[in-house]
Write a structure and sequence with these properties.
Helix content is about 50%, strand content about 20%. The chain contains 13 helices and 9 strands. β6, α11 and β7 form a beta-alpha-beta unit. The longest helix is centred in the N-terminal third of the chain and has 34 residues. The protein is globular.
Length: about 300
């Protein structure tokens, strides 16, 4: 009996080891499936609004990269994209999104990375440029000078956007408070500028938080100096058209040299480029750090 019991004990132990081994094999198989990130994300990039510069560039990337053959870009809204990103990160699931700096996504989710772009479809460092209508300088040299001297940092813009996201407060209100708290910066923009005396200034912008932050800050700063500023949020194509046609006096929303290249090239003869108001911007495909890919070329065709 003792021998039988001993054999039974040994068999039980062997069974446990075998089950563990089978479990390990299944886990390894699961990991192997998850290693194919292209299939895991269903060969789909999560994007934002159709017509946005980064959306157009992503559609071009799918055409240009052979290894993105058969891929789709799911275009909806920035809010929808961020919701999907949040869910994926919470569950540590693979996801590929269209990303850009400045944006509060990198403050909320710091462990994300841009995929390398060997073909340079997304370009390198971007700038946000100020554009003005032809004749604006002659019509209002002080307003023109103020806008020409306006410049700030990526971190400034992301600070405002992140606070808006965290608190739910309107970006325009947060921008106005930022102006109150950074009077030395405002004084630099206003150097040599006379009081606006109630002159009406029309700015064209986009409804994205980054541009709402910059136009909100400029509006508050200029109104401190006696200008009356109206900001109109429109589609990016309309931004360029409105400045070129003179319907708007200026914009801060031109992402160059890549993101808004097509819009700029179409209208450049009918507007004045004042140069960058923000440097260090970037666009591209972004993934969480836990994904084991580093380049667009790591992805596989469908």
């Amino acid at each position: 009996m003792k021998s039988v019991k001993g054999i039974g004990f040994i068999i039980s132990i062997l069974a446990i080891f075998l089950l563990a081994a089978c479990g390990s094999s299944d886990d390894a198989s699961g990991d192997g499936a998850e290693d194919n990130d292209s299939e895991a994300v269903d060969h789909t990039i999560i994007g934002i609004e159709p017509g946005a510069g980064i959306s157009v560039t992503t559609e071009k990337a799918i055409e240009e990269y052979d290894n993105l053959k058969g891929w789709d870009v799911e275009l909806s809204s920035t809010g929808a994209m961020m919701s999907e990103l949040g869910t994926a990160i919470q569950n540590e699931e693979p996801i590929i999104i269209t990303g850009w700096n400045p944006h509060w996504m990198f403050a909320q989710y710091p462990d994300m990375k841009y995929l390398e772009d060997p073909q340079g479809i997304y370009g390198g460092e971007e700038t946000l440029n100020s554009l003005a209508r032809i004749g604006f300088e002659e019509d209002n040299p002080d307003a023109y000078k103020f806008i020409d001297q306006f410049e700030w940092e990526v971190e400034d813009m992301e600070e405002i956007m992140y606070e808006a996201e965290e608190t739910g407060e309107d970006i325009e209100d947060i921008s106005a408070q930022w102006v109150e708290d950074n009077q030395d910066r405002v004084d630099a923009w206003a150097e040599g500028v006379n009081d606006g005396n109630g002159a009406e200034i029309k700015l064209a912008s986009t409804p994205w938080d980054s541009e709402r932050a910059s136009s909100g800050v400029l509006k508050a700063a200029m109104e401190q100096h006696g200008f009356q500023v109206t900001v109109t949020d429109v589609d990016v194509a309309v931004v360029f058209e409105s400045v070129a046609s003179g319907d708007a006096d200026a914009t801060l929303a031109a992402w160059l040299p890549v993101t808004h290249k097509d819009f700029y090239e179409k209208q450049k003869d009918n507007l004045i480029d004042l140069g960058p108001n923000l440097e260090g911007a970037k666009i591209g495909l972004v993934v969480p750090e836990y994904m084991d890919i580093d380049s667009i070329e790591d992805l596989e065709p469908k």
